[in-house]
Amino acid sequence: SLFRGLKFLTTVNDLRQLPQEGLEVAFAGRSNAGKSSAINTLADHTRLAFVSKTPGRTQHINYFDFGGDRRLVDLPGYGYAEVPAAVRAHWEKLLGQYLMTRQNLIGLVLIMDARRPLTERDRNMLDWFRPTGKPVHCLLTKADKLSRQAQTAALRAVEKEFEEDSLITVQLFSSLKKQGVETIEEIVGGWFSA
Ligand code: GDP
């Protein structure tokens, strides 16, 4: 399986230092949405991606390697309230530039807490990325915190928002319960083999 072989590659602190080669899939999300946990769960490796004790402090970009010049890019979490507004705005601008211009990027995985998906900042990310015509997969994580019924309702609500948009797919996910692993494997695997 694709994610099982994931290995840490490098950390970059500046978008101007991004590697030239390879194809990449980016993971983005609001701080604390569960992005690091999702990467660890997918890789079946408890400490591959650093689970933040102080969300929003780590503003570097971690590259992981799937093998075969295929990468996973762990983007800095956005929107953490205790980061100064100017720093936050600076990083969000860089994220926007990355999403809009990065040639190596073939798809975006947007991590959102299933209990509060599609915040204003999540929508900004989607708006920046939409013109590229590349696919987005929304991971509604921490699904275990919702009842079955509420999970279905959350999924339907987000799917409904994007029913006109064939480039956006949505699924439920839980790192705690390892729920939804096969679905994202299939989607991201499909991007790499397209
Ligand atoms: P990040 O800032 O997006 O990388 O978020 P983290 O992966 O660091 O997770 C933030 C917090 O949410 C941590 O306390 C995690 O243990 C918790 N968390 C992440 N994923 C899940 C999940 O699927 N279920 C539950 N119950 N908690 C989760």
Automatic annotation (TrEMBL):
Gene3D superfamilies: P-loop containing nucleotide triphosphate hydrolases (3.40.50.300). Pfam families: MMR_HSR1. InterPro entries: G_ENGB_dom (IPR030393), GTP-bd (IPR006073), GTP-bd_ribosome_bio_YsxC (IPR019987), P-loop_NTPase (IPR027417). Keywords: Cell cycle, Cell division, GTP-binding, Magnesium, Metal-binding, Nucleotide-binding, Septation. PROSITE patterns: G_ENGB. Residues 21-194 form the EngB-type G domain. Its cofactor is Mg(2+). HAMAP family: GTPase_EngB. Necessary for normal cell division and for the maintenance of normal septation. This is Probable GTP-binding protein EngB. The gene is yihA.
